[in-house]
Every structure is written in C-alpha cells, then in structure tokens.
Amino acid sequence: MKAVRLNRPASIESNPLQVIELPRPEPREEEVLLRMDACGVCHTDLHLAEGELPPHRLPLILGHQIVGTVEEVGKKVKGIKTGDLVGVPWLNRVCGQCKFCQKGKENLCLEAQFTGYDVDGGYAEFTSIHQQAVYHLPSGYQPEELAPLLCGGVIGYRSYRLTSVRKGDTLALYGFGSSAHLVLQMALFEGIEVFVFTRSLEHQQLARNLGASFVGKAGDVPPHPVDGAIIFAPAGNLVKDALNIMDPGGKVVTAGIYSTPIPQIPYELIYQERAIQSTANSTQRDIRELLELAGQVRLQPQIEVFPLEMANQVLQKLKRSEIKASAVLKPK
Ligand SMILES: [Zn+2]
Ligand SMILES: [Zn+2]
Prior knowledge:
By secondary structure, the chain is of the alpha/beta class. The chain folds into 2 domains: 2-140 and 298-330, Quinone Oxidoreductase, Chain A, domain 1 (Alpha-Beta Complex), CATH 3.90.180.10; 153-278, NAD(P)-binding Rossmann-like Domain (Rossmann fold, 3-Layer(aba) Sandwich), CATH 3.40.50.720. 23% of the residues lie in helices and 26% in strands. It has helices at residues 43-50, 99-102, 143-146, 152-162, 180-189, 201-210, 237-244, 284-296, 311-319, and strands at residues 2-6, 17-21, 31-40, 66-73, 85-88, 91-93, 113-114, 126-130, 135-136, 170-174, 193-197, 214-216, 226-231, 246-254, 275-278, 303-307, 326-330. Strands 3, 4, 5, 8, 9, 16 and 17 form a 7-stranded mixed beta sheet that branches. Helix 4 (152-162) packs across helix 5. The chain binds zinc ion (2 copies). One zinc ion (ZN) is lined by residues 94-95, 97-98, 100-101, 106, 109-111.
C-alpha cells in the first residue's frame, strides 16, 4: 500500500514526510482494517511533523480524521462489519480505570492514546485501528465532508456544549476557521442566535452567508449581550473582549490547545457568575453526539481536497495560512 510516513521531524519545507510502499497492516484481534476514503489534515499534524509536539514513536503515520471502509475485522470486534463506512478521531484509546475515565471525563485520561500520534493514523491507503476508536458515520455525506467533523467538528461541538447555551440564547464565536463554521451551523439548528467576530473579510462573508446575525471584528459592540462565547483564535485578550459583552451567568470557553496569556481582568467582568473554561480533546460521548447531530442537520463543511501524496505540500500551505477551509487528503 501507499503511505506517507514521518521518519524524523523537521521543518515542513524540507518535506519530512516520505511517500513509500509498505505492506498492508494485518488487523489484530480487536482491530478493524480500513481502506482510507479520506483523511483530514490538522494543525496538530504540522506540529508533529516539525517536532514542536515530540512524536511518541517513529517512524509514524500521521492523520487523525479518518473516514474509511471496513475491509477486514479482527476476531474480537463487535458491531462493525466489512463494508461499513466508519470514522476515526484523535482520541484513540483510554484506560477506563483512572479517576477521569471513571467520571466520564476520559478526554482527560492520564493514559489516553491518540490516533496518528501513539498509533499509526490515516495518511495511508490502509490503516488498522482498535475498535474502541471506530465510529459509524451518518449518511448523506461524501467521505471527504465527514473527515473534518472528526477533529475540528468534535472539538467545536465539545466547546459549544461547555458554554451551556440553549434555545433562545446568543452565542459569540471569536475566530472563524474549520471548527467555528461547523459550530455556527449546529447552533442555528438548535435555535441559538450567533454573533461572529473575525478579522478576515473572507471569513466575515462566509459567516454572513451561513446565517450569523451579527458579524464584526473583536472589540466591536454587538446589538445585545451574549450568553456564551467560544474563543477559537489563540489570543488571550479575546477572553476579555468576550467577557465585555457577556450577560450574567454566561461562560467563555477557549477551544485551543495553545493561547497567548489572558490579560488581567477586573473582578466585575467575572462577578455575577460569569466563568472561563478551556476545552481539552473530547469524550467518546461527544463524538457519538456530534455524529448523531450531523445526521439530523446537513452540515456543510468547507473543504479542499488533495491527493495523499501531496501531504508535505498541504502542510506547507497550512503553515502559510493558504488553506481557507479544511484540507482533506484522498488516495487516487
Ligand atoms: Zn486535529
Ligand atoms: Zn483513564
């Protein structure tokens, strides 16, 4: 099979991913062999390829937003059969024993393993994945449309649920990339008004087209206060901007794995039970719920599709901010 493999992290301009022929993996007892239909490309892949996030093993096949068709199942696999179209997210396996797993917060598991990080991922024609990380997908979508739901989509979904906004409330989104444009569609479907704050004129236009009722840049004053906010951009000062337009009891949720420092905040900005919370990974329940929601509302992920062999070039484009939507790799 054709695979794109990271042998040693290096600057992405030096093409650290190698296109090679490898034997097709054999599924173990609890694994499912997938023929890859589409695999999303994420900023985390760039951090791994360049070594900012030290890989847990080498060589490594990246890719953690895998949509594939089941080719073969191991002896102990239950509920998944040959020919099923399935998805694999970043969260691969958890211990099930630690205090976080016991509380249903396995996104914080101390021994969590991640797809395309601790185990080989989806930048290959075939990949063998533990059944714990395999999810059935909603119908009515192309495989390349489903791939971005498995990372950007699910992180956005978790952040959205953490805000606790409900029907009739207003939600503010700061930054409008691959995750936010999906959250906007979910929130509108659930009867929530959405305000979008982004510098990019192109993103502002997309937000308007998708149904945001107010669009501006951070610091602009919307028509009325909001009940929740999600910060997608890695800028700590946006937390203060969001609190400035937050009604009592509202929550600001940060979706990123990284942010610049949050500036000093006067106490009155969080008094009246306003809160700030970050998001880390996602739970198995988040993934199931998001895929269920995507079955009820036809989400419209904005995607750009590239051949698998172009993984280095796609990551270079991602680094230069030349990917406007979600990049997805497909084998020929
Ligand atoms: Zn990701
Ligand atoms: Zn655990």
